[in-house]
Each structure stands twice: as C-alpha cells, then as structure tokens.
Please model this.
Amino acid sequence: MAKYTLVIHGGAGTIRKREMTEELEAAYLEGLDNALTAGYAVLDKGGTAVNAVRAAIVVLEDNILFNAGRGSVFTKKGVQEMDAAIMDGATLNAGSVAGVRNIRNPIELAAEIMRNSNHVFLSGKGANDFAIKQGIKLEPDEYFFSQFRYDQWKAIRDSDNYSLDHTHQRLEELMRDKKFGTVGAVACDANGNIAAATSTGGMTNKKYGRIGDSPLIGIGTYANNRTCAISCTGHGEPFIRAVAAYDVSCLMEYKVLSLHEAMNIVVNEKLLDMEGEGGMIGVDAEGNAAMIFNSAGMYRGMRNSEGESEVAIYK
Ligand code: ASP
Model:
C-alpha cells in the first residue's frame, strides 16, 4: 500500500505571533487539527482522496474562525458570497461554484456539480438554484454572521467615500494588514490518487460579483495524478494572472521538477515578482507533501501514514 497523505491550509497572510492571543492561537490550531482528523480518517479507512479533502474542508467551513462557509467575510454590499472548487486528479473531473449565498458547505455544492451536473462551473443564482434542486444544505444569513468579520468590514466599507489619495493610502494600510482565511485541502490516497479542494468567502469588502482564484480550476485549485494536487491562498488577483496551480503542474510535467521545487519557484519567485502575497499546499501521487508561502504566516497542517503529523501558523 502506498503512502497516504493529507495537507490542509486555513489561509495565509500577515499573521504574526505578537498580534495573536494564546486562546486564539490554540483555537486555530485546534480547528486545523479537527479538520486533519476528519480528512485523515477517510484515508485511513481506505477512502478516496476526493472524499478526504471534502471531509476536511467541511470541518473548516463550519468553523467560524476561517473565511469559508460560516466564517465568510463581507463583500462591499455587506453580504457573503462564497467560492469553492474540487478536482479529482484520477479523472480530471472538477466542480466549481462562485458567488453563492446561504450555502452551508460550498464544497459540497462544488462536489455535486462535479458528480451530477454535466458542467464544471456554476455561479450566482444558477448555482444556488442547482443547490436547492439537489438538496444541498442551506442556512439563513444569521448563520454566516460573525462580529469580528463585520467589524473588519465596517472599518473599510466606506473607503470609497474618501478622496482618491486617501482611499489609496487607507486601503494600502489595510492591505498591509490583510489576513486571508481561505481554506484548502489536498490528499493522496492509498491507491495513489490525488485530489484538491478550496473554499473561501473571498476578500473583505470585495466588489459585488468579484470572483477570486479559489474556484478557478488550474489557478487556486488543481489536481492531476501525473503531477500534483494544489490548493492556493492569498491575494487572488496575482494568483489568477500567474495561473498559479497549473504552473506548478507544468513545471513538474515539462521540466521534471519535484513538487517542492516547482511550488517554490511559483510562490517565492513568480508570485513574489507580481506582489502575489500568499501560499499554497501540494501533494504528489507518491504522497509527498509541501506547504510553501511568502507571507508572514499560513495556517496549515499535514498528516501521513508514516506517522508524521503537524499543525503550524507562522514562518
Ligand atoms: N485567494 C482568496 C481570494 O482572493 C483569498 C484567500 O486566500 O484568503 O479570494
């Protein structure tokens, strides 16, 4: 039986130890550990990589600390619009959603699109209608409300009312302090099949209708048994322009680089050159794992069948 591995992230960004309380740090680490436990249990029972990443993401989406599902950030209009994607590296099947509202677990909707829609990507109302038809669980607006996300949004929601220069300055300050809380998981199962999944509320105060990198196949999420499974987190726009996840796959396929080498080039050279702050997690079909980021921190964790297990936050 081949080595099996699960890797997760809970977002990257300006996460510094000095700005964190002990309680909050413990809560984040516990949240990551719970997600690893749920996803790893699937692999341990001989389950598929696709089901393992789903299980891990559901736990993170249900945890208000992470910017996905329940803890999603507020858009410019003061609502939550969520994006998610899942990809099966064995078949290259994929499912994505963008701009959905009131869906408890957007990753379940993405998986349903992959399995039962004949499409890859649904957005907005069409995606919500499909969710209702397929019996995907919905929640009222209150379920997604969290005071700290609301306060984060309130601090910048009026930023367009300032004069342009001031706006820039203010936004720059805020961007410097930005924290991304998207969640992601990649897995390699005992049969050497790999999968990737990502789920997010996007970025605080994002424009209505804005779609980030997370649900875009080949950008925030990608899996291919021949190369790697990748889930990204960070400032979505540069990741989109860098075609980040697929670039890692291409470096492995065409330049025969290792997972670690390929991810390092994309995160620490290409993205950095584009001011693309963030990071990514990856596995290959031999169960090798990598977690690489160019920001101050990335909530992350991994567990494998060789008994290695870790959760971490800072560099
Ligand atoms: N990449 C996400 C986005 O731009 C944000 C994040 O990773 O937290 O929507």
Summary: The first strand starts at residue 5 and ends at 13. Residues 161-177 have pLDDT under 50 and may be disordered. Residues 5-308 form a domain with the Glutamine Phosphoribosylpyrophosphate, subunit 1, domain 1 fold (CATH 3.60.20.30). The chain has one domain: 5-308.
